[in-house]
Design the sequence.
């Protein structure tokens, strides 16, 4: 099962925002993960949808209110920057957690980029929960994440993989800090 939130030293998120509602367009995806003292990551929540910009921003805000992430990385381009600005104004308490993440050369870096994520997947636990998760048939966000990871880099979609990479990068940042990290679940702080 999933450890209680009080066991995590940090709660992190990654968001890959999309712009279009059209069939076949990219998906907006948000991943929420807990980081355990040993650096292991547990997927706590993932959502995926084709949403209007404001609806996706509100969904991110609702998710932040549910988890009170220590850090949420959102890919930083003009559209995503507008989202980060909106969220910081709408929920000032989330301002420190929500950060733009500029992708560039490091996206392809074998250590810190998407290729490096493959080497860190052993740090991830993805509890599937209840339900019938028939491979190839189930379209839930967790099954979609698994399908994208298996197909990467040749699959049709990488939206879930990108959101996972952003969350993983946030987790790495929290671990590198090595300082006390407050958690919403305990109201206290823990250290790596």
Sequence:
């Amino acid at each position: 099962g999933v450890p209680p939130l009080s066991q995590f030293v940090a709660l992190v998120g990654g968001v890959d925002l999309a712009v279009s509602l059209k069939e076949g367009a990219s998906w907006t995806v948000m991943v929420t993960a807990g980081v355990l003292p040993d650096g292991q990551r547990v997927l706590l929540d993932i959502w995926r949808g084709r949403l209007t910009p404001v609806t996706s921003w509100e969904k991110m805000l609702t998710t932040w209110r549910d988890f009170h992430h220590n850090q949420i990385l959102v890919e930083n381009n003009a559209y995503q920057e507008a989202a980060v600005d909106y969220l910081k104004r709408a929920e000032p308490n989330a301002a420190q957690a929500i950060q733009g993440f500029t992708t560039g050369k490091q996206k392809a870096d074998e250590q810190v980029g998407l290729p490096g994520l493959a080497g860190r997947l052993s740090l991830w636990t993805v509890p599937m929960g209840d339900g019938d998760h028939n491979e190839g048939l189930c379209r839930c966000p967790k099954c979609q994440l698994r399908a994208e990871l298996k197909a990467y880099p040749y699959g049709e979609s990488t939206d879930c993989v990108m959101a996972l990479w952003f969350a993983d990068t946030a987790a790495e940042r929290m671990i590198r800090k090595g300082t006390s990290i407050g958690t919403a679940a305990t109201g206290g702080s823990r250290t790596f």
